[in-house]
Each structure stands twice: as C-alpha cells, then as structure tokens.
Specification:
Number of helices: 2
Mean pLDDT: 80
Order of helices and strands: HEEEH
Distance between the termini: 50 Å
Strand order of the largest sheet: 2-1-3
Radius of gyration: 16 Å
C-alpha cells in the first residue's frame, strides 16, 4: 500500500512540474520562442502563448533562427 502511495505521489509531482514550465511565446511575426531560446526573455510583445513549440507551430507559427 505504501508503494502505491509513493508512486502516485511521484507522478503528481512530475505532472505539476511539467505544468509550471514557461509557455511558448508567438510574436506578431508568427515566430515561436520556447524558453530554451537565447532571446526568450527579450520577447515582450506576443500574440499568444502555447504549451509546446509543436502546438505553436501547428497554429501557424514558425521556428526561430537559433542565435549564439
């Protein structure tokens, strides 16, 4: 019984950690920036946020050119 509680607790912690990730930002030009991109924190004006880069691209966005 304790093992089941331990496993369920671990799963809850992992799922809550995934939800606290930074959102992907889509700019007016349609470029999608995830939190791994070096310019992510410079993006101030954006038209939408998404849970993943794939979701942003499916909405009509494009991947940015990596710098650095």
């Amino acid at each position: 019984m304790r093992l089941i509680i331990f496993i369920v607790s671990g799963m809850l912690l992992l799922s809550s950690g995934a939800q606290s990730a930074e959102p992907v930002k889509k700019t007016n030009a349609g470029t999608c920036f995830d939190s791994d991109h070096p310019n992510y924190n410079k993006v101030r004006n954006y038209v939408g946020t998404y849970k993943s880069l794939e979701e942003c691209i499916k909405s009509g966005g494009k991947t940015p050119i990596k710098t650095g």
